[in-house]
Target: Heterokaryon incompatibility domain-containing protein
Amino acid sequence: MESNNSSHTRELLSHSCPNLVARISSDLGQTGLHYWTKLGRTQITKSHEACTPGRCNANEAESRHGAVTHVEISCRCAPVGPEMVKVAKIMAANMIPVVAVRGSGKDPYLVVDAYKPGLVFTVISHSYSLSDCFGNSSENKLPTCQVNSIREIISRLPSIGSGTQQHWFWIDTLCVPLQYTRQPSTQQIVAKSMKSISQRATQTIVIDSDILRLTSTSDPKEVFVRIAYCSWSSRLWTLQEAVYAQRLLFHFSDQDVDLDTLMRKYGNLPPEWELAWLSRLPYKKLREFLNARCERRCAGSNNHRLLLLRSLEGRTTSDAVGEPVVLADLLGIDQEAIETRTLLSGSASSTEK
Ligand SMILES: [Zn+2]
Ligand SMILES: [Zn+2]
Model:
């Protein structure tokens, strides 16, 4: 029986993403790896055939071949999007476009406005993976069913309440015109705007298909494994969104848990998991380094660099223009064309393999 189990685990691992396997065994050892397979693994909706131990290429492969996801596989509802001319105008004026859903559930439509101080809005942070609900690499639209699902999720958030006010939100799929993500000059504008969007948002909610499998009664180890090794935790952009979020919420199937509660409630893991917990959910700590006014050495100090380096493990982006901007920002460096990867490798070995 025992050997059947372990041969089943070996079989599963041989068909798993080699990068995820390498990261989990480095973080949690064989016990963690076994636990991950017992849970049914993470990121199983994507093909990991092109992945190597050094890098997961599943998102890139998917954006070339995948289709937009509906709430139900059999759904064929029409796509909906905001007026992109208006979104582009707001961005050209150096302002933040936000959207809200109006109309009936059968016939929703999106309105656009520019953010003004005092406006309550929520950032929807997702991995942009097509199989994780909210990605669309061919147009600035989402299926009607997904737009309705966003409306419902946001209206239930505690700080938003059920009043008649519009529930404004920002999501890259609808608020960043596709032409902006295709040209280096505009890619840089997008990369630079991300920090201020996260800072101005009232809250940021993380939505990911693996996190959605968690419930309020899930075991702390499961909570950690599903969050740490999901698609959302495998992207560079989402690290920046999480570090600068005023309030970071994770969307479970039956509740939304904020980061502070998560750290308090689930942070009491076995000692061998503790280091992994700190470096896979490093958002608050990284923010403390960046906010530290005490001495100049806080941001960019060795401890800061080492934590950032660990947090970057397994996080990828296909955006070569945006990457240095995001990294420089997470290092607290106000300098654009800097070779940040080189700088990082000065204090420890590089994550790039
Ligand atoms: Zn992979
Ligand atoms: Zn649909």
